[in-house]
Amino acid sequence: MSFANFMGKSIGFAGYVLQYACVTHCAFEYIGDFVMCSGPSMEPTLQTNNILFTEHITPRLQRLQRGDIIIAKCPSNPNQNICKRITGLPGDKMRGQLLRSQIVPRGHVWLEGDNSKPPNPSIN
């Protein structure tokens, strides 16, 4: 096998790898992704170590609704994702920490876990 032949095959293989990587990236970015749950906040609906397929098409085609389960960035640690249920939409009056009421601002939703015991709700 000559060097030119070897280089030609190597470049062809690299092209296939690049195409596969691009298709895979687009699929995970625009169609859906897999997420592993951890923590008790969504019990009993979701358990720790459940693997979810999150699809990315619906949020682009229709509005989020009360009751939807979403994956969002954690407000206290943006490097971490959280899995919560939408319980309030913009303009809704929600009961926050210390029983104070808050209005959900425009462009935000109120998120809570299904487990009534653990962490605090958040506006995202």
TrEMBL record:
CDD domains: S26_SPase_I
Residues in Peptidase S26 domain copies: 19-94
Any GO BP annotation: protein processing involved in protein targeting to mitochondrion
Documented EC number(s): 3.4.21.-
Single GO cellular component term: mitochondrial inner membrane peptidase complex
Compartmental location: Mitochondrion inner membrane
Enzyme class: hydrolase
GO MF entry, a single one: serine-type endopeptidase activity
Catalytic residues (UniProt): S41, K84
Pfam family, one: Peptidase_S26
Keyword entries, A-Z: Hydrolase, Membrane, Mitochondrion, Mitochondrion inner membrane, Protease
Key word Transmembrane present: no
InterPro entries associated with the record: LexA/Signal_pep-like_sf, Mito_IMP1_subunit, Pept_S26A_signal_pept_1, Peptidase_S26
Primary localisation category: mitochondrion
Subunit-structure text: Heterodimer of 2 subunits, IMMPL1 and IMMPL2.
Protein family (similarity comment): Belongs to the peptidase S26 family. IMP1 subfamily.
Alphabetized PANTHER family for the sequence: MITOCHONDRIAL INNER MEMBRANE PROTEASE SUBUNIT 1, PROTEASE FAMILY S26 MITOCHONDRIAL INNER MEMBRANE PROTEASE-RELATED
Record protein name field: Mitochondrial inner membrane protease subunit
